[in-house]
Amino acid sequence: MGIYADYAATTPVKPQVIDAMMSIYQHHYGNPSSIHTQGRDARHFLDESRRKVAQVLNAETHEILFTSGATESNNTVIKGIAQARRNKGMHLITSKIEHHSVLHVFEWLEKQGFEVTYIDVDETGRINLNQLKQALREDTTLVSIMFVNNEVGTMQPIDEIQEMVAQSQAYFHTDAVQAVGHLPIDVKELGVDALSLTAHKFGGPKGVGILYVKKGTELQYQQQGGEQETKRRAGTENVPQIVGLTEALTLADANRDAYNIHNTQLKEQLLVGLQDRAIPFELNGSMIETTNHIVNLYFPFIDVETLLTLLDLAGIFVSSGSACTAGSTIPSHVLSAMYGDYPRVTRSVRISLNELMTTEEMNRIIVEIQKIYLKFKEEEHV
Ligand SMILES: Cc1ncc(COP(=O)(O)O)c(C=O)c1O
Question: Which cofactor names does the annotation list (predicted)?
Fold first, then answer.
């Protein structure tokens, strides 16, 4: 049996989530737009899901939109706000370490004539707040900065960003995909105008997500057709997946403290284990401003592709950063923004943790990395 340590890429679906979804597939399969009893029955589950999700996020029910995942949520909100507010300004702000489902949207908007400022980050992956302050202008209509980075786990100073953005006319959107189950997500407390989530990062199914949009936010919705999602996203709602998402979100929120303790212990075990065995490494990211479920390590003695292959052969599944860039030779844009240093960027690996991982599994990971290191040392590569 292999050891999966790539939980930031995706997580297995929780048994309770599967049960909740199966019941909808088997017994409540009506189209929630149908007016007969079977349709109204499905509608009930859809409405209940929206109510529960709104409760967990401290939002109003009409502020919750179900989508096909964070890629869609990010596309909808960034394009939609930029377009709806173009008469107010054509300037947008984001950071250099966003997920591609944010960065590529901004790049596309640049081609449509918008001006985008990409904020730098420091060596821990935190954005430069002074630069953000300077960048905010009268014609800035949107700032999109992620809550937790998916490659290094660094948390952004969301409160400070929100305070700055609130001084301007710009809206504040955050991609909070990697924060669920690790940090409380209270949209009122965070003071954001929009927020994106995806279920498969916290024990839910793939292909379903959430877009929170604060009431009154100007946003041009993209999808035309039926009147689903209060005319904001046409298409028959995926009720089983939405019910699964809701169950997963409820579980992740309820067990957050326990998950955090577990992940912190695993991370400590990993770092201490590597140190005790005198394996050279450095942590990419922050030791403090982090959710602890993502541990990105620089191993100077080996390039990441060789390390990933050797670990895979040993039955250990980790990643070189975001899943989208894994397998390609393009260095991580996140690590490049943080270090700009070529060897470090191509010699770093992401080990991501979850409540399902055991200390025995972590021990095997450490032992396998040690074997690889000793082999390299022996062959005088080091
Ligand atoms: C930070 C972040 N944003 C967005 C996404 C995209 O989510 P999805 O592929 O579910 O649309 C991911 C997934 O890798 C992510 O980690």
Answer: pyridoxal 5'-phosphate
